[in-house]
Design a protein that fits this description.
about 900 residues, alpha/beta, Rossmann fold
Length: about 900
């Protein structure tokens, strides 16, 4: 069996086109991921001069990247017989690629961190004047103004990569914005791309590196590329790489973020693609002919689209009543109908998790959720931010409102008594009494206070733990863990603020921006997904498929969405500065594309419903989309008496959810599986400490020293102080701590250099990426600090070296599973077995070494598979002993008072 088996003629043509640039127009359900992965493996098979690091694949999401990389490994094993070097192939988002290149090859950006949407908002809220926000007449203390300013800056940065002339006020704001982020060693997502383009256009050395490195570029979901991403793709193309884009103009749904459908509509002429190198994959293997006909009936109404006709190639047959529409007098009736159909479909064997309700806007989620609760239907609301609606989070917020003196102790106790967890009164009184002892005004140094530590200590004193067999206690812990992440987001930006002011700002954050920014904790667990109906927006559903899909509230001004009133970005940004500015506003054609995406998520059952909105007068008449869909010859009005059959139901996906782990996470699991659960399931975060970043800085320093030797530019001892100064960075340390730790780092590097300089000529690799693919959607990735070779009694031996920075005994480290994983990763990367694993403590020069044997590989592969099985089945036992538990920062969530007492930990 070969990777070409089972392909259609068009799919085969796409896979075999590897010498010319290629455009793949892939309709929904056309098997594009399988085509792309086969083409990549075909390149490696047919072009021996091409190495995995010469191939780059851009995906729209990290989830899509995981699926793509897993399939590449599968076909590489099958077709090439090995997966050597695949760890060096970049498969991921455009932003991730740019960050990796910038930090790999442009020294000044090695210290930079990336702020996500939430931490960007917090950062701008704190630095609103410096960022240029007030220059535009916006108020930094208003949440809406911060969100509005971010939209404006994203719009500007994503369209500011050429010599376009901007109004002076906008130009000044752009400069201030970037300067403020850079001064604080931060990127936001738009600045990463902007800087990458700047470097490619001005840094000749980087241009040559990229030109020699990237030979094949694949861009998935090309229809949703925005202007700055398109500019980057064009630059990479102009450097000589083979370009393959994959997408579908009918599925362009992110125009409000700047995606421009004209990119895919005019790709042929823009890039000079030969007509024969445009492949249309028009066979849909997912949906029945009835579902496809509804989708086609709507999308044909669009005039701005490529000429193509999707065809059904699904083995699932249409039954009368599997594609219907219904109208109701009110939303309670509509949502009750949805609940009844879910129950009926579940009764004939369809899993709850194989059904989805797709919303145009998330606001309908709460009312629908309430109806499903009355039917006892398990469900998950994805993308609806309701963390702060829970009792445990209201009580957690109250801890800090108490410190901010806006509530008293009795109010705080009342809120915790409402949580639904058995907290005894003595523990609650004690926890509050400890809070009363905190004198914020008396704490002088900002590094002497941690909001996170206050939260951890309060939970310690309450004695909140997981109660075996009590599902509610698990949900509470998920949400408390999520609140720990909320604290971390805030303190990452505000750690250097004086304690009293920090608490006040934190409470302001909790009562404003945070409320609409966080989902409940259990929704973040990607390893375990319960059998529950999925409620999500259509945008969230992109790339997914379900046996049954419900699309409710098909009313005008809801779906399709109506125009937005109030202030718009054009009140600050002139439209003539933005090419094709109207795409940001959305049109009926855009709404048809979104409806097309919603419909084509369904394999067999599709329910289109409406009722007059109970909350908006503007959303009470029938949607143009539903009127259009009813023109399909397959759709019928649901008569309320459809009997579903178990015959012909598409089987549920039996593929295990991907488990992608890194070495540190696995080491945490092997050390104590339950601590892994507390950290990576529940999400509890360690308090920030002033020295955070010391280990990372030391790794970067030795990496740069090692790479200089590899590149034939050996470091002289006189340069060490400058190298340390260039790379040493502690974001949270006060000046006196930074000075002391900087001196410590320099002494450690000087000692390491003196001891090892004669061995630097033996270095083979410094900081190399490795991946282990164990099949069954199990992958482990990480980085090896150093690989060196040495002559031992006339034999050349290979050493894998891991650097540590903490003081103390490192015997535990050499016996840890982490190093054995490194050994297996190196074997998969290079196809050869290393001889020794070695740990070096940079702080004290201590070394430990262990021999690598064939049994090492067998043991670690078995242990990873066992760990994955336990993670997927939520079976993570405790490994308790006095020495281990005394060092565990989460022992308070694990051990009872009695257990702590018996171990002497109280």
């Amino acid at each position: 069996m070969t990777i070409m088996d089972g392909l259609t003629a068009d799919q085969r043509r796409a896979v075999e086109t590897i010498d010319d640039n290629l455009e793949i127009i892939a309709c929904a359900g056309a098997g594009k991921t399988g085509v792309v992965t086969r083409r990549i493996v075909m390149i490696l098979k047919s072009r021996p001069e091409i190495r995995p690091e010469n191939i780059v694949a851009f995906t729209f999401t990290e989830k899509a990247a995981v699926e793509l990389k897993n399939r590449i490994y599968k076909y590489a094993h099958q077709e090439l017989g090995n997966v050597q070097g695949l760890a060096h192939m970049y498969v991921g988002t455009i932003h991730g690629f740019c960050l990796k290149i910038l930090q790999e090859y442009v020294q000044q950006f090695q210290k930079f961190s990336v702020l996500d949407e939430i931490t960007t908002s917090i950062f701008i809220g704190r630095n609103n004047d410096e960022c240029g926000m007030t220059d535009l007449g916006l108020l930094g203390y208003k949440m809406y103004d911060v969100e509005f300013f971010i939209k404006v800056m994203n719009l500007i940065n994503e369209n500011s990569f050429d010599d376009r002339v901007w109004p002076p006020k906008i130009s000044s704001c752009m400069s201030k914005y970037q300067e403020t982020f850079y001064k604080n060693k931060y990127f936001d997502f738009s600045l990463i791309l902007k800087e990458m383009i700047n470097q490619l256009e001005t840094n000749e050395e980087l241009r040559n590196i990229i030109k020699n490195k990237i030979k094949y570029l694949t861009v998935d979901e090309y229809q949703d590329i925005n202007p700055i991403q398109e500019r980057l793709i064009r630059l990479l193309f102009e450097l000589g790489c083979n370009l393959c884009v994959v997408g579908d103009d009918d599925q362009t749904i992110y125009q409000f973020r700047g995606s421009d459908v004209s990119n895919i509509l005019h790709f042929e002429e823009n890039y000079g693609i030969k007509p024969e190198n445009k492949v249309i994959l028009d066979k849909n293997f997912r949906c029945t002919s009835a579902v496809i006909d509804v989708a086609q009936t709507i999308i044909r109404l669009n005039s701005n689209r490529l000429d193509k006709e999707m065809q059904s190639a699904s083995s699932w047959k249409h039954d009368d009543g599997s594609v219907t529409y219904s109208e109701f007098g009110n939303t309670s009736e509509e949502y009750g109908f949805i609940a009844e159909q879910i129950e009926s479909l579940h009764s004939v064997g369809i899993k709850y998790s194989d059904m989805a309700v797709l919303l145009r806007k998330s606001k309908s989620g709460a009312e629908l959720s309430h109806i499903l609760d009355t039917y006892d239907i398990p469900h998950i609301i994805d993308g609806v931010h309701e963390l702060f609606m829970t009792n445990e989070i209201a009580a957690s917020c109250a801890v800090f409102n108490f410190l901010d003196k806006t509530i008293d102790g009795e109010q705080l106790k009342t809120l915790w008594n409402n949580v639904g967890y058995p907290i005894d009164a003595i523990s609650l009184d004690f926890a509050v009494s400890i809070l009363e002892l905190i004198d914020l005004a008396a704490i002088k140094g900002y590094s002497d206070f941690s909001i996170q530590q206050v939260f951890h200590d309060f939970i310690v004193n309450l004695g909140v733990r997981e109660i075996e067999g009590n599902n509610n206690s698990e949900i509470i812990l998920y949400n408390l863990g999520k609140f720990s992440q909320v604290i971390d987001d805030f303190e990452k930006i505000n750690f250097s603020v004086a304690p009293k002011s920090r608490i006040h700002r934190f409470c302001f954050f909790l009562n404003g921006m945070a409320i609409n920014s966080y989902a409940e904790g259990q929704l973040e667990n990607t390893y375990i997904r319960p059998d529950a109906v999925n409620i999500m927006t259509v945008h969230k559903s992109k790339g997914l498929e379900f046996t049954a899909v419900f699309v409710p509230q098909l009313n005008r001004n809801y779906f399709p969405a109506g125009g937005h009133g109030g202030r718009t970005i054009w009140s600050l940004v002139p439209k003539d500065c933005i090419p094709n500015a109207k795409r940001y506003e959305g049109t009926l054609e855009d709404e048809r594309r979104l409806f097309y995406v919603a419909v084509t998520r369904a394999k067999k059952f599709l329910f289109l419903t409406r009722s007059p909105s109970s909350t908006s007068k503007n959303e009470r008449t029938i949607s143009q989309l539903l009127i259009g869909a009813r023109q399909s010859k397959f759709i019928i009005r649901h008569n309320g008496n459809v009997n579903y059959s178990a015959m012909g139901i598409p089987p549920a996906d039996t593929i295990n959810a991907p488990v992608n782990l890194n070495f540190s996470i696995l080491q945490d699991f092997f050390d104590c599986p339950y601590r892994f659960k507390l950290s990576f399931f529940y999400g509890f975060v360690q308090p920030i400490i002033p020295g955070l970043g010391y280990g990372t800085s030391m790794h970067e320093i030795v990496m740069n020293i090692h790479r200089r030797f590899i590149d034939g530019d050996p470091v002289e001892k006189a340069e060490l102080s400058e190298i340390v100064a260039d790379h040493f960075f502690l974001r949270y340390a006060p000046p006196f701590i930074e000075k002391n730790m900087h001196g410590k780092a320099e002494r450690s590097i000087q000692d390491y250099f003196d001891k090892e300089k004669n061995q630097f000529k033996n270095i083979q690799h410094a900081e190399i990426d490795i991946e282990i693919d164990l099949g069954d959607n199990i992958k482990v990735n990480g980085r090896i600090d150093l690989v060196k070779k040495a002559d031992i009694e006339g034999n050349i031996k290979t050493f894998i070296v891991d650097f540590k920075t903490q003081h103390g005994d490192i015997t535990e480290c050499i016996n840890a599973e982490q190093l054995k994983i490194y050994a297996l990763g190196y074997k998969e990367l290079c196809g050869e077995k290393a001889d020794y694993m070695e740990v070096c403590n940079l702080d004290n020069g201590d070394y430990q070494r262990e021999t690598i044997t064939d049994r090492t590989f067998e043991e670690v592969a078995c242990n990873i598979r066992d760990a994955t099985e336990k993670i997927r089945s939520n079976k993570m036992e405790r490994k308790c002993n006095k020495q281990k538990c005394s060092k565990c920062y989460l022992n308070y969530l694990c051990l009872s008072k009695e257990e702590k007492s018996s171990m002497g930990l109280m």
